[in-house]
Specification:
Chitin-bd_dom, 11 strands, Chitin-bd_dom_sf, 4 helices, three-stranded antiparallel beta sheet, chitin binding, 2 domains, signal, alpha+beta, Antimicrobial Protein, Tachycitin, Chain A
């Protein structure tokens, strides 16, 4: 049963045009996301609740439970009517978006609440994986990627991914770990 559910989740992700790496799995553990999922529908994708102000994000649901969340590609927004990611040239926030200018507070050290991954000191090429019990591991980002604190993950610094990195964070990382883009082009 589990493998059947997993294969259907992967099929939904592939149909929506997603990379499986973009998916965060919840398997029904997030009550707010569960509330957005219609009961009695085997597989459906729905947009995030409006107050989260995320028109690219969507929730993959099964039988009233949020099994995973993901986001549309660059230049796309999630269409609640079709259940697909659509290209958009007219970006607008969802109705009910309460605070579009809110800035997420991200953890800066492992002792901060909710910290899982934090930036390493004096470099963007590494990050710290924070585990319970005070055990922390310094990890390397893959080649051609930098740890971006706002996303709490390593992100590739080549097109088309570069557009998603906040300009200020990219400038900070370039100051710490300059990348010669002439060497990255083939």
């Amino acid at each position: 049963m589990f493998l059947k559910l997993l294969s259907r989740l992967i099929a939904v992700a592939i149909i929506a045009g997603l990379s499986i790496a973009q998916v965060e799995h919840y398997w029904g553990s997030n009550k707010e996301y569960n509330a957005a999922c219609p009961p009695g529908v085997l597989f459906v994708a729905v947009g995030f609740p409006a107050h989260l102000c995320n028109p690219r994000g969507f929730i993959m649901c099964s039988n009233g439970k949020a099994i995973a969340v993901s986001k549309c590609g660059i230049g796309e927004t999630f269409n609640n009517v079709t259940g697909w990611c659509d290209p958009t040239t007219d970006f607008s926030l969802p109705a009910g978006c309460v605070n579009a200018t809110a800035v997420k507070k991200y953890p800066v050290k492992c002792s901060d609440p909710g910290a899982t991954y934090v930036a390493a000191r004096n470099t963007c090429k590494k990050y710290v994986w924070c585990l319970q019990g005070g055990v922390n591991y310094t990890m390397d980002c893959p080649s051609m990627s930098l740890f971006i604190k706002e996303y709490e993950r390593c992100m590739y610094v080549v097109e088309p991914y570069l557009i998603e990195i906040p300009p200020q964070s990219f400038a900070e990382c370039q100051a710490l770990d300059p990348i010669d883009f002439n060497k990255t082009r083939t």
